[in-house]
UniProtKB/TrEMBL annotation:
It comes from the Eukaryota. This is Tektin. The keyword Cytoplasm applies. Keywords: Cell projection, Cilium, Coiled coil, Cytoplasm, Flagellum. Its main location: cytoplasm. GO terms for biological process: cilium assembly; cilium movement involved in cell motility. GO terms for cellular component: axoneme; microtubule cytoskeleton; nucleus. InterPro entries: Tektin-like (IPR048256), Tektins (IPR000435). Residues 240-303 form a coiled coil.
Length: 430
């Protein structure tokens, strides 16, 4: 069985055929016109976007260069400020060491003054007096202790100020390190091009990072760090001036008091030497007088013995004449003469005995006083020896070893990064 022919399609008229051809032509012309417009607009857009992109890249590069210039200027200011802080720290450390040396130098004067007071306490008797030397030495000890207290306070304050400077230096170093990191990043961004292999699309690159600051906050932060460092340096400078002035004033006071104590000691030593010489002269004269007194006592005793013999003779004669017999027992001139002689001899003996007793008593008093003078002379000799030892002890204050200045050994300071200069980590970014 053969297949049936296909059913013919819908038949169109000739007018419809012309209309369809005309519509196709018009549609083609319209689409070509639209395509031409789109092409022209695309070319214009490409030119505009290419120019805009080029100018944007150049403007961004210019801004990066300006930013790197700003960061570099700020970095240089931070470096200069940090160098000044280092210099001020070195100067303050040197002043602090000089003050510590001045404090250590007061140990010898205090030891000498205390030793002099202890030596002079060894005086005995009436030589143990509260004289101007004691007053000057005690005043010197009080002054030295006051000087030590003042110097120690300055040392403590300078140490605290060094800590403040160190903290300011640490802030400057941290800010300077951030500036160098930012400068390195901006310079690396400036070196990138569209042909650089490091470029790629990032996720949400236009986000604002947390902790971002404004340009005003950025410059104010560095200005605050430098202002804080400047203030700390100004305080440190005033402290160094005050420490130097205080050391000079205290040294003048110590020198003045030392001279006053030494003058009082020399004056006292001179007075004691005069008293010793006077006492030695009195002892010598007393010894001479004692020798003469002993000689006179011997003479008085010899005269008394001689008068006793004469009295015995008169007694014997008068007694023997009582044996005359009868009328020859006469109270004649001989009798009266012997009686008068006996009375005279008895009065003479009494006077001699009294004078001998007075002489012996005077000699005994002179011997006792001589012994006292010898004892006092011994104490004066001891006191003079102690004064001389005190003067020899104080000679340590003016010895060359004490007056020569000790050279100051400068120890290089290290900043918060452990470096002694400002060569931080910038070299590794270049």
């Amino acid at each position: 069985m053969s297949a049936l022919p296909a059913k013919p399609g819908l038949r169109h008229s000739v007018s419809e055929w012309y209309s369809n051809n005309h519509q196709l032509s018009e549609t083609a012309q319209h689409e070509r016109h639209v395509s031409n417009v789109i092409r022209q607009e695309g070319r214009s857009l490409r030119n505009e976007t290419n120019c805009q992109t080029t100018w944007d890249e150049r403007d961004t590069s210019r801004r990066l260069r300006d930013r790197t210039w700003d960061v570099a200027r700020c970095k240089e200011a931070l470096e200069a400020c940090a160098q000044k802080v280092d210099q001020e720290m070195e100067a303050l450390t040197l002043t602090k060491e000089q003050t510590e040396q001045a404090l250590a130098a007061t140990a010898v004067p205090l030891e000498v003054s205390s030793e002099c007071l202890t030596l002079r306490d060894g005086r005995r008797g009436y030589e143990l007096v509260v004289d101007p030397v004691d007053e000057q030495l005690k005043r010197e000890v009080e002054l030295i202790e006051k000087v030590q207290q003042v110097l120690q306070q300055h040392i403590d304050k300078s140490f605290e100020q060094l800590c403040v400077l160190q903290e300011a230096r640490h802030q400057l170093t941290a800010d300077l390190q951030n500036k160098m990191d930012a400068l390195d990043i901006d310079m690396s961004c400036l070196s990138l091009t569209i042909k650089s292999p490091q470029i790629s699309l990032k996720t949400n690159p236009t986000r604002i990072p947390s902790g971002s600051s404004t340009p005003q906050e950025w410059i104010q932060f560095s200005q605050y760090n430098m202002a804080n460092a400047q203030e700390a340096m100004q305080v440190s400078y005033q402290m160094r001036e005050e420490m130097s002035l205080t050391r000079a004033q205290l040294q003048n006071e110590l020198d003045t008091q030392r001279r006053a104590a030494e003058f009082a000691l020399r004056k006292r030593n001179h007075h004691e030497e005069q008293a010793r010489d006077e006492l030695e002269w009195q002892i010598k004269n007393t010894e001479d007088e004692m020798a003469e007194m002993e000689s006179d006592i011997q003479g008085l005793d010899a005269d008394l013995q001689a008068k006793t013999a004469s009295l015995k003779l008169a007694h014997t004669r008068l007694e023997n004449r009582t044996n005359r017999p009868g009328m020859d027992l006469c109270r004649d001139e001989v009798q009266h003469g012997l009686v008068n002689e006996i009375h005279q001899l008895e009065a003479t003996n009494t006077a001699l005995k009294q004078k001998l007793s007075e002489a012996q008593h005077s000699l005994q008093k002179m011997k006792l006083h001589h012994s006292r003078m010898l004892q006092d002379l011994n104490r004066k000799q001891e006191a003079l020896s102690l004064e001389q030892r005190s003067m020899n002890t104080r000679a340590r204050l003016t010895s060359p070893s004490c007056t020569d200045k000790i050279p100051v050994l400068l120890v290089p300071l290290t900043n918060s990064s452990g470096r002694s200069n400002l060569q931080l980590l910038y070299t590794r970014f270049r």
